[in-house]
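Lab channel / #folding
Pinned by the channel admin:
"Please post every new chain as: sequence first, then the structure tokens as a reply. Keep commentary short and put observations after the output so the thread stays searchable."

First post following the new format, from NK:
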Amino acid sequence: MREDMPRVGFGLWKIPQGETASAVVEAVRAGYRHFDSAADYANEAQTGEGLAQAMAEGLVAREDLWITSKLWNTFHAPEHVEEACRKTLSDLRLDCLDLYLIHFPIALQYVPIEKRYPPEWLVDPDAESPRMVRARVPLHETWRAMEALVEKGLVKRIGVCNYNSGLLHDLMSYARVRPHTLQIEAHPYLTQERLIRLAGDYGVEVTAFSPLGAQSYFELDMAEAGESLLGAAPVMVAAEAHGKTPAQVLLRWGVQRGTAVIPKTSKPERMRENLAIDDFELSAVEMAAISALNQNRRFNDPGTFTEAAFGTFHPIYD
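Reply from TO:
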């Protein structure tokens, strides 16, 4: 298994099941070696199919791949963490994950795999008033169970998603196995500079999801059309200066500031475009101008979508 996490990964969120296997194979052909998956994406079996096909065709070897997945909220209780991990491994057709992350610092009531998988957010979608049901599981107990996965050889590294600075400080005070990665939403409208700096102080890698900003959220009605970063003036100016697309500039900005990025696309031409960001460098002036777009605009905010979609107010950011 590889020791380095490729700086540009292939995000699997929102790729339809029927397209996932072929998208994974195309991504491998395009040059991707880092794949970012999760139980909640509901396409891990198809991802596993694509990875198996790519390896069977000799397009890539397992030791050249970096595969990340995530523990869902309903499996936070220590007795369910290994169960969830083994289900992911089975679906992905792997013996070991390169990285396994706590998806959200949100513990929800357990839903057995045989009852509904992936369990998503609602304890009973068919109830008269469907809702989230919180579980009384401290994050430190979940982390201990995550550490056990490393000790058993089921995962090589562990980490967290969607943690704020307070939770990261707390985690570092008790972690026996230190987190490898913090995965957070980060783009020029949400630069997260202090949190990224803190992670760096602790020696924790940062992966930025939604590195293009609003693009992933238009179809979910979680972003307004005018919030696209692709038309932002500093991005367009840099794109013209370097002969690159606005998307390439945004990804280069993310990588150049020290984070990994995981853009998502099903289009082979976009896959290749998103990888082609190593042949130019943004100047300090360009980096500063793009960073100055920050509005602290978070598109993926449980404090907003859990109430709107699941009838439960559950913020995790103040």
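NK: Residues 10-309 form a domain with the TIM Barrel fold (CATH 3.20.20.100).
TO: also worth noting, The chain has one domain: 10-309.
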